């Protein structure tokens, strides 16, 4: 078996850790469960990240990097269905490749006390979909519904181990429908 580079190992560790933190929260996620999830000893895990706190912060930051990247890619597009479709495509692709990262990012919607930078995450999502949640509550609810569907379906696709290329168009159609847009 070929040896993995440190960056690949770190990415695998971060995604697995993000999934555990998203599922159980910081306090309920042990260093042992994190190490077990990636097939390392606690000492081996600590070789890559000096503490559970450092791993948690690195996972959150990586989730934000993914989200900021989507915002950068869609920002030149005008607000509207095409921008929303592209945002969903990019997020779905990330979620299919890095399910833990996307789970952790969306955890800020359901467990705001875990993340002191929740407002930053919400601003990124609001910028991605060009929305003022206070002024457009029905649309904000549709966006959260679309993102929730995407998160659940991409997690299921990864859990089932099926062909992600089969799941992708179905996930996108579901998300687009949740936004109230007709298929193009």
From TrEMBL:
Keyword Transcription regulation: yes
Gene Ontology molecular function terms on file: DNA-binding transcription factor activity; transcription cis-regulatory region binding
InterPro entries tied to this protein: Homeodomain-like_sf, HTH-type_TetR-like_transc_reg, HTH_TetR
Superkingdom: Bacteria
Domain HTH tetR-type: 7-67
Record feature DNA-binding region, as residue ranges: 30-49
Keyword Transmembrane: no
Pfam families (UniProt xref): TetR_N (PF00440)
Keywords: DNA-binding, Transcription, Transcription regulation
Coiled-coil portions: none
PANTHER family named in the record: HTH-TYPE TRANSCRIPTIONAL REGULATOR BETI, HTH-TYPE TRANSCRIPTIONAL REGULATOR RUTR
Listed name of the protein: Transcriptional regulator, TetR family
Organism of provenance: Lentzea xinjiangensis
């Amino acid at each position: 078996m070929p040896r993995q580079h440190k960056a690949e190992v770190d990415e695998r560790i971060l995604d697995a850790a993000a999934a555990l933190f998203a599922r159980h929260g910081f306090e309920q996620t042990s260093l042992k469960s994190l190490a077990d999830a990636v097939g390392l000893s606690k000492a081996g895990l600590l070789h890559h990240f000096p503490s559970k706190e450092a791993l948690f912060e690195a996972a959150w930051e990586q989730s934000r990097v993914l989200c900021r990247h989507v915002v950068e890619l869609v920002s030149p597009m005008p607000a509207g269905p095409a921008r929303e479709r592209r945002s969903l495509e990019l997020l779905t692709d990330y979620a299919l490749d890095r399910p833990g990262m996307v789970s952790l990012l969306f955890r800020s919607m359901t467990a705001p006390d875990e993340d002191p930078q929740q407002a930053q995450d919400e601003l990124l999502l609001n910028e991605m979909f060009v929305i003022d949640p206070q002024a457009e509550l029905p649309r904000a609810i549709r966006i959260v519904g679309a993102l929730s569907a995407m998160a659940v379906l991409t997690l299921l696709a990864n859990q089932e181990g099926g062909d992600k290329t089969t799941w992708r168009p179905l996930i996108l159609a579901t998300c687009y429908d949740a936004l109230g847009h007709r298929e193009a």
